[in-house]
Design a protein that fits this description.
Blueprint lengths: L10 H5 L6 E5 L1 H10 L39 H4 L13 E10 L7 E14 L3 E12 L5 E12 L12 E3 L18 E6 L4 H5 L12 H6 L9 H15 L8 E8 L8 E9 L2 E8 L4 E10 L7
Antiparallel strand pairs: 1-3, 2-5, 2-8, 3-4, 3-6, 4-5, 7-9, 8-11, 9-10, 10-11
This protein binds (2E)-Hexenoyl-CoA.
Organism: Nicotiana attenuata (Coyote tobacco)
InterPro entries: HotDog_dom_sf, MaoC-like_dom, MFE-2_N
GO molecular function: (3S)-3-hydroxyacyl-CoA dehydrogenase (NAD+) activity; 17-beta-hydroxysteroid dehydrogenase (NAD+) activity; enoyl-CoA hydratase activity
């Protein structure tokens, strides 16, 4: 079991935890490696909508950065979790439950980011605990806010810590802010199908999430999977890339916010089908794994305008 101090789960101690500020530095190489990790240019190395993420296309001075790259700023905090007093859980059973991202400014191709993190929620689900962490990221030099991430971490086996008959539930934010929408029954507005590669998680992990759940068959087995699974944020990256292609005409900076809930694991090598429905400036999406015909991820993306190509 991870957790510092006492061996009792103490929710009040958990939610009063203060993270120290931290820095995250990245280069163009990191942005390009990330884009390859979520499948950019995998099918077509001269894709006219994606080459700009990995190469100075048409002599552009800087490569362009995908909005989901912002999620990497939140990565260090899962290892910080082991230091949170009062939190008791088995790190081998941790799964990524949800991710919510707000983008305030297009992400630069390189930079030094100052992260300010806080505990945003804690919920006792009986068989599991859900911990929410919120990270607001600023460009260090200008002090400008760049983005906000809120992640929900699903800690299997860590629930049942409530001291009263009501299950413990604390949330810093109104629950509707990142609530996930109902999937419409109508035909999707657009559908995009793409195969992940058998080595997808091995490539994606180089962007900074080295949890062996995604690379080590023995660790995956202990976590209950027949082989290593894909990072949730990799699947989210595939989905948002599909949305940028099909809905935004390749313009990544139209995206204001992204919400996703991971409902089932994905095995590297499986085919992802992203279905999309437009509701004004909100795009609702669902990702299914073709081989098992199961939904694995759903959520919404808010756009600042609609593409003239629609
Ligand atoms: C973070 C960085 C590390 C990265 C790791 C990875 O990438 S891992 C790879 C990527 N991640 C994955 O592959 C994970 C894929 N997801 C899964 O395998 C499953 O969804 C699960 C095991 C997380 C939960 O399944 P289950 O059958 O045990 O759950 P249930 O349906 O019985 O509901 C129990 C309660 O929990 C609620 N709740 C449910 N799901 C979620 C959620 N996703 N999110 C939040 N909450 C969720 C649900 O609403 C309900 O509460 P209510 O309504 O009663 O108050």
């Amino acid at each position: 079991m991870a957790g510092s101090g006492s061996t009792e789960f103490d929710p009040e101690l958990v939610i009063s935890h203060k993270f120290p500020e931290s820095l995250y530095t990245y280069t163009e190489r990191d942005a390009a490696l990330y884009a390859l990790g979520i499948g950019a240019c995998a099918k077509d190395a001269i894709d006219d909508k994606e080459l700009k993420y990995v190469y100075h296309q048409d002599g552009q001075e800087f490569i362009q950065v995908l909005p989901t790259f912002a999620a990497l700023f939140s990565l260090g905090f899962t290892s910080e979790m082991e230091q949170i007093p009062g939190l008791q859980y088995d790190p081998r059973l941790l799964l990524h439950g949800q991710q919510y991202i707000e983008i305030y400014k297009p992400l630069p191709s390189h930079g030094c980011i100052l992260n300010k993190a806080s505990i945003a929620g804690l919920h006792d689900k009986g068989k599991a605990a859900i911990l929410e962490i919120e990270i607001v990221s600023y460009e260090k030099e200008s002090g400008d806010p760049l983005c906000m991430n809120r992640l929900a971490i699903y800690l299997r086996g860590a629930g049942g810590f409530s001291k009263s008959s009501q299950p413990y539930s604390y949330s810093k934010n109104p629950s509707n802010q990142s609530a996930f929408p109902k999937i419409p029954k109508s035909q999707p507005f657009a559908v995009f199908e793409e195969c992940t590669h058998a080595s997808q998680a091995l490539l994606y992990r180089l962007s900074g999430d080295y949890n062996p759940l995604h690379s080590d068959p023995m660790v995956a087995g202990i976590a209950g999977f027949s082989r290593p699974i894909l990072h949730g944020l990799c699947t989210l990256g595939y989905a948002v890339r599909a949305i940028i292609k099909c809905i935004c005409g390749g313009e990544q900076n139209m995206i204001k916010s992204i919400s996703g809930r991971f409902s089932l694991h994905v095995y590297p090598g499986e085919t992802l089908i992203t279905e999309m429905w437009l509701a004004g400036l909100r795009l609702i999406y669902q990702v299914k794994v073709k081989e098992r015909n199961r939904a694995v991820l759903s959520g919404f993306v808010d756009l600042d305008r609609l593409s003239s190509s629609l």
